[in-house]
Amino acid sequence: MPHIHIRSFKPVALPAKKENVAFHFMASNVAHTDEHLIATGIGDKEFFLLVKDTAESVLLKSEKISRPSPTYIVKQALNQYAALTESEILASNVNDTSEHLHLVEDASLWSIHDFGKGFPEADDVRVEVGFGSGRHLIHQAKENPDVLFIGIEIHKPSLEQALKQINILGLKNLILLDYDARLFLELIPSNIVSRIYVHFPVPWDKKPHRRVISPAFITESTRVLAPQGRLELRTDSENYFAYSWETFISLTKAKLEVNKNQDIAISSKYEDRWKKMEKNIYDITLINDEISPELKLEGSFLFKNGMDEERLTKLNTTTQKVEGGFIHFERLYTTDDGRMMFRVSMGSFERPEHLYVIIGKEKSYYFPTQPVASQVNFAVHKHLDELLHG
Ligand SMILES: C[S@@+](CC[C@H](N)C(=O)[O-])C[C@H]1O[C@@H](n2cnc3c(N)ncnc32)[C@H](O)[C@@H]1O
């Protein structure tokens, strides 16, 4: 990950601009005075840089929750912040960034908010969850130029690698999204997807709640799949296969297919590795035969006005249960422009979101983005607003 070590931290008055990078405000952790976040913007990307002050030096890097893609953006912001604060650089892995300029404007890389503005129109939509090296996704997109493919991946280097290939091949029927696929499914209109590929998902043997396949994922998949649409799970893990089979078979009604060691059109990087090791490969396919009701998402993420310092301080580090979900107030910050800010995890237990909430006398809002417009998030937001503003 890109980072810079500087000798000492000399904050400057914000907002300020350096080249194409805007620095809006600084937030300081109330419990750990050595941690500061710098709200930063490049184009339409909003994120935090993290400043970690230690006795020997100061570390500048991107903050995890809001980290933008591609990495090039972070590098640019780090360089410009070091320049703005006239910092003495002790060490840096942020090299020249100019050669990657074209990636910023990449039309194939969508944010979750692009989908919020309207789902792309296409006669046939196929989704790949966790495409990794992108070998299967890109092969499919090349073979089926009339189909729109949406590839979802949370690993940024994989996204960047796939973006490079899309540009080289000039593919126009492929959208990449840097987001948790489990949450993304909730935004897809009903009955429009013909395939959902989940190939070699991480088995998460010790943290099953992080698995992609779950009862909620299957329910959402069934809703978004068109009649005869297929959810295709492919795994080398016997454990994951057994867990998934149990999850699929507990549905009240389902049409399922199971295969062992079946070759498919293109073998992924993982698959090649397992085949060399002579591991078994299992497929479970769910074939949807229902028309689901239309997707209806109603609610808002607006907050009431006001900032009650005492109330907010009491909430810090507490967890509040809400019907269908929860809010955990992880960290409290004060900002250099007199506001307060929480880092929260919120939403459903299965698929929590990690976000910041900036609270001002006149306006409160989520940073870097609003939660996904799901029913649980709307309900949790309502409760959050009550807790913050009464
Ligand atoms: C073991 S790799 C397999 C990659 C690829 N499908 C293949 O067959 O080579 C699993 C991938 O899923 C991604 N992943 C895990 N959980 C995810 C989620 N909730 N949403 C999107 N991608 C996810 C990981 O980042 C990783 O790249």
Summarize the structure.
It contains 10 helices and 20 strands. It has 390 residues and is of the alpha+beta class.
What does this structure look like?
The chain has ten helices and 20 strands. The strands form two sheets. Strands 1, 2, 3, 4, 5, 6, 7, 16, 17, 18, 19 and 20 form a twelve-stranded antiparallel sheet that branches. The chain folds into three domains: 95 residues; 182 residues, Rossmann fold, CATH 3.40.50; 81 residues, no CATH class. It is globular and about 60 Å long. It is of the alpha+beta class and 390 residues long. The chain binds S-adenosylmethionine.
Provide the helix percentage: 25-40%
**Remind me, CATH topology of the largest domain?**
Rossmann fold
Name of the CATH first level of the largest domain: Alpha Beta
Largest beta-sheet details: 12 strands, antiparallel
Question: How many beta-strand segments?
Answer: 20
How many structural domains?
3
- The string of secondary-structure elements, in order, is EEEEEEHEEHEHEHEHEHEHEHEHEEEEEH
User: What distance lies between the first and last C-alpha atoms, to the nearest angstrom?
Assistant: 40 Å
> What ligands does this structure carry?
S-adenosylmethionine
- The CATH architecture assignment of the largest domain turns out to be 3-Layer(aba) Sandwich
Task: Please mark out the parts with pLDDT under 50 across 5 or more consecutive residues, or reply none.
Answer: none
Radius of gyration: 23 Å
The pLDDT mean sits at: 92
Based on secondary structure, the structural category is alpha+beta
Coarse shape: globular
Fraction of residues in β-strands: 25-35%
Total helical segments: 10
* CATH H-level superfamily title of the largest domain: Vaccinia Virus protein VP39
